[in-house]
């Protein structure tokens, strides 16, 4: 049995949400930076993978989080995030300020169960 993931607030779909509010067997946390070549490469691989896309429709939720909190940049980049992912932003930069997750490099991906 593992540790509980740290809860945090994020803005998506016009409202503030919490990680703990997501209900799914598995949650993929995908921390990204708009324009980051490694992030875009990882996104391209995941978008093309049909088996991965099928999983997202069954037991997996993917929460893409831009932790740097720059809303204008996030909004301009939103079209690059697949519409079947949850695209969120940490407007208060709490994830970074409190070091809630180890984000030494982008892309950083966590699998939560």
From TrEMBL:
The lineage of its organism: Bacteria, Pseudomonadati, Bacteroidota, Sphingobacteriia, Sphingobacteriales. It comes from Sphingobacterium litopenaei. Pfam families: Redoxin (PF08534). InterPro entries: Redoxin, Thioredoxin-like_sf. Transmembrane segments: none annotated. Residues 2-82 form the Redoxin domain. This is Redoxin domain-containing protein.
